[in-house]
Amino acid sequence: IAAAVELWARGPAALPPPPQPRTPVLPVEGERNVLITSALPYVNNVPHLGNIIGCVLSADTFARYSRLRCWNTLFVCGTDEYGTATETRALQEGLSPRQLCDRYHALHADIYTWFRISFDHFGRTTTPQQTRIAQDIFQRLLARGFLLQDTLEQLRCETCGRYLADRFVEGTCPFCGYAEARGDQCDKCGKLINAVELKNPQCKLCRGTPVVMPTQHLFLDLPKLEGRLEAWLERTWATGDWTANARHITRTWLRDGLKPRCITRDLTWGTPVPLDGFRDKVFYVWFDAPIGYLSITANYTDQWERWWKNPEQ
After folding, report:
1. CB distance 43 to 105 below 8 Å
2. How does pLDDT run across 159-208, given as a tens digit for each residue?
3. Is residue 57 domain-shared with residue 110, that is, in the same domain?
4. Within its chain, how far is the Cα of 4 from the centroid?
5. What is the phi/psi pair of residue 249, to 5°?
């Protein structure tokens, strides 16, 4: 505190000269390199103050602090654009998913510019780089035996002629009885739901009653990773800055045992699955969207791996 008071009394002239901005910002040997990513806002609506305060503003504050400390800082973000919520909203507005994403991406970018959020790059997940990197990660998982193939019972609307992904189905929650639960989770009790478990399911497009039919999907074999994950967590819990809440939630998942997680969907709007027998499917948005942080960086600089595959710096 005494040092801060002394520096304050000496005024701005005592501060070191600000570093000259680099373009692009890349890790520098011998410097403190800081990569900041705020949560990708979903693109099917206008962002509100809660979105900005909840993730974007806090990341921006830290980015400004990092730059004032003369740390070599890269701050990226972008719109999350794939998934059933986009398809649903596009249908409501009479647009194609691409048209809807173009519209809301521009709107998001304008709002963050108005708030003077200091992104070095604000991108999006519907890019060729996203497809390339997501498919490469998928191929690596496949080659290393971390994927499973299995049959799922899934709801299909014969009127619409399509399998219904999670958010194209609504019905009564089997756990709490909430009448407007989605096909992936109940917004009232918070439990995850398999769409076929819904009572009185309805197609969100035509309000018809879907039927249960089998369909093939790919799963991430999380049980195979459980041992390595636990060992990694023990190391990072001992040395890192995990919050008590984050530790508790993670321990709960591991206590119950990890389960295989489906990573494909019967949709057209998404990153295509590059595997015979599944080329009419796309990746589930929660497999695809986190890869957006990498692809957005890759759209900022072709040397993106220096940020994402460079733990020594």
Report:
1. yes
2. 888 888 777 889 999 999 999 898 888 888 988 888 888 999 999 888 89
3. yes
4. 39
5. -65, -45
pTM equals 0.85
Asked if residue 12 belongs to a domain, the reply is no
- Distance from C-alpha of 114 to C-alpha of 117, rounded to nearest angstrom: 8
Distance CA 212, CA 193 (A): 15
Say which residues have a Cβ less than 8 Å from residue 188's Cβ, sequence separation at least 6: 173, 176, 178, 181
Span 207-223, pLDDT tens digits: 899 998 898 999 999 99
Domain assignment present for 82: yes
Angle, nearest 10°, between helix axes 84-93 and 97-114? 100
CATH of the domain at 129: 3.40.50.620
Give the C-alpha separation, 110 to 108, whole Å. Answer: 5
CATH assignment at residue 205: 2.170.220.10
Question: Hunting for tokens 């080659």 — which residue is that?
Answer: 143
Q: Containing domain of residue 121, as a range?
A: 21-138+285-309
Q: What is the pLDDT of residues 221-277, one digit of tens each?
A: 999 999 999 999 999 998 888 999 999 989 988 888 899 999 999 888 999 999 999
Residue 233 within any structural domain of the chain: no
Mark whether 113 and 172 lie in a shared domain. Answer: no
